[in-house]
Each structure stands twice: as C-alpha cells, then as structure tokens.
Amino acid sequence: MSKHNYETGRLNLPFVGISTFAKKPYLQNWEEINADVAVIGAPFDFGTQFRAGARFGPRAIREASTLFSFGHGGAYDHEDDVTYLDEDVTIIDLGDADIVHTDTKKSHENIEFGVKKILKSGALPIVLGGDHSINIPIINAFKDEDPFHIVQIDAHLDFVDERHGVRLGHGNPMRRAIEKKYVTGLSQIGIRNVSSTAKEGYDEARTRGSDIISVRQQRDLGAIETIKRIGLNKRVYVTIDIDAFCPSIAPGTGTPSHGGFLYYEVLEMLKEISKMHTVVGVDLVEVAPDYDLSGSTSILAAQILMNFIGYIQYYKNKIQNIKNHENQLQ
Questions:
Q1: Are 63 and 19 in contact (CB under 8 A)?
Q2: Contact predicate 47/103, CB 8 Å
Q3: What is the pLDDT along the chain (330 residues), one digit of tens a residue?
Q4: Which of 162, 190, 268, 279 has the fewest C-beta atoms under 10 angstroms from its C-beta?
Q5: What contacts 104, CB < 8 A, 6 or more positions away?
C-alpha cells in the first residue's frame, strides 16, 4: 500500500488476517529471501531447567505484533520527530525452523540452517525464541561472517560450561558463544540475584573479557554510558532474554527474576546500540505466554523488537546517506 492510499485499501485492523510478524508477508521459499529484515521463529524449549513453554513464544510474539500493525506507514515518534519502520524498510516472515521433539541436535541444526539462509541473502536476521539455547545455533550460523561483539540483555549469565553432560541448554549459550574465534567479546547487562551460573562462571567470563553489568549498575551509568563501554563502530549481535525485564511487566517467562529492567531502560540501550554500532543480528528469547494470561509479556516483546528494527534501519540509512553526501562532495 502506498503512502497516499490508506483510505482506499483495506482497513486491515490488528485482529484481522493471519498473524505474521507485524502482518508482513510470509515467505515459504527460503531461497527467495529479498528483504532488509527477515524474521524466523525458533520454537524450541527443550533446554529449559525449570518451566517450559517458550516453544509458544514465536506464535505469541507474532500475534502480539499485530497490535502495532495498523498499516498507516510506520511508527511516528513525536519525541524524535522520526517515522521509524516506514515503508522503505522491507520485512518478511519466514515462519519457523522445524523442531524435532526430543532431538536437540537436529532442532538446533534446523535453526542454524534458517539463519544461514537469511545471512546469505544479506537480510538482518531477527529470531523469535524459544529458550535461550537457540542462541547457540544462531551464533554457529555466523561462522563465515566477519567478527562481532555480543550484547546480552538478561537476568542470568548463561555461562555454564557443562552440567551433568549438558552443554547445549539455556544456561550454556554465552559460554558456547565466547568459544568462537569470531566472537570478539561480551557485554552482559542486567545480570542479578540468584543466577544461572556459579562464581567460577563469573570469574571465567571476566577472564575471557566479558563486561558484566547489573540492573542497578546500568541505572547508575545510564543507557549512553553503558553502551559506550562496548566501544564505537563495532559489529554487534544482540540477544535479549525477556527475563531481563522485571516480572511485574513481563511475568510470562520460565525463570522470572525480580528487580529487572523497565521498558524504556532497555529501549534506550537499543537505540544507543543502533546509533553507535552496526547490528548484525537479534534474537529475543524465553517468552512463555502461558504464564501471563494478560498477554503483556508477548506485547512487550513485540514492541521492543519492532522499535529496535526501526532504530536499526533508520540509523543505518542515516549513516549511508551521510556517506553518499560526502562522496558527492569529493
């Protein structure tokens, strides 16, 4: 629909139609990806150590995203005087990676395969989890890409090496990530309270160069100074665990942890990341909708992702326009 015919097309209200992410086109053939952003679901939750249910996260996030999809040309932010997610940003929904019940290896391989297809196309991968173990095959998919830094927004460190032979659960992804030669470092933000990793895990993470910041430390620093700690102009992958947020606003998760972030605290960090760095991929994990009958957790996840996509594309285009202008002056 063009920018000038909103009144002549379908009204297409949020509760009408099929629940693709942001009501964007569904693409079944992964050999034909041609978009700025490609969304894929990873409905896998066999890696959980407590409450399962994140397998329903992708479906719930998609449905919640329709709330923000009235079809009126993006999202105008009156504070910034910017329309984010405008029609120049092409987004497609690839559906879900195939999950084989009880088979972690095959399910992870299928997730990796889907992300590789997105990367090969040149689109930005946005992965809807699923428990946090899905980050392991996602990062594996970047094997042939340029190096990058990982920003993890989470209540838990997820830095366990091995526990009772388990190396691919949702307590392991950051440990598996830092083992990759193409992962240059970790910023682990929001880590707090009774956690998923013992003291030796924290010691090992810091030894390997991780910058661990609690919610209270982030509040003291503020969004800008927190993200400045990463450096400038880096390639950054962002993984967001919904339990980074306080369960007062995001109860629909398997491992809630009180004392978490509020909406704008995370949103402001994501905006600063988009300004300062090149985002190469995003996942949002651990939404387990059955624990939140209000649907607020899924709405929060969708709202965060849609804003983040808007920031990424806006600042990417802004930087490109500046470069084009500079080239014209030379």
A1: yes
A2: no
A3: 445 455 666 778 888 889 999 999 999 999 999 999 999 999 999 999 999 999 999 999 999 999 987 655 567 889 999 988 887 899 999 999 999 999 999 999 999 999 999 999 999 999 999 999 999 999 999 999 999 999 999 999 999 888 888 898 899 999 999 999 999 999 999 999 877 778 888 999 999 999 999 999 999 999 999 999 999 999 999 999 999 999 999 999 999 999 999 999 999 999 999 999 999 999 999 999 999 999 999 999 999 999 999 999 999 988 777 767 567 776
A4: 162
A5: 44, 46, 47, 133, 168
